[in-house]
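Human: If only I could read backbone structure tokens as easily as an amino acid sequence. Take your time, and here it is.
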Amino acid sequence: MKRTILAVLLAASVTMPAQAQEQQWVPIAEAAGGAIWEMRKGSLQLLTGGAQTLVHMVTRKRWLDGRGSIAFERKLVSVDDCNAGFGKVVTVSLDIKQRLYDNDFITDGGTVTSALAEALCLGGAYLQRTQRESSL
């Protein structure tokens, strides 16, 4: 959990010019099969449409088993699901035009999807709080 909180705060911060490409990515979760999910710094945003507010970020999945494969995606979760402590993490294309797949999560569920949701929810709460404070 501490790792997730640190990652969210780093990812929500304003992106500085990178000294190295890897400094733009913050680890969020790892799977036993040799994959790691990372959040791109500065990509965490709130998206409001209709009655629903979504939190989204750009992620990178790297396979560490020697294949060298990398996949870029955008993860979304609704603020309502964050508040409920369970729901769906929706994976879409980077341009948000194509829905790729959904995964269920429960806060503190111990899964990769739960870790991604926790990062999104913590980041979304931080962004909402800073928006409220700046409007005062």
Notes: Strands lie at 25-31, 35-40, 45-49, 52-63, 70-78, 86-92, 99-106. The mean pLDDT is 84. The chain has three helices and seven strands. The two ends are 31 Å apart (CA to CA).
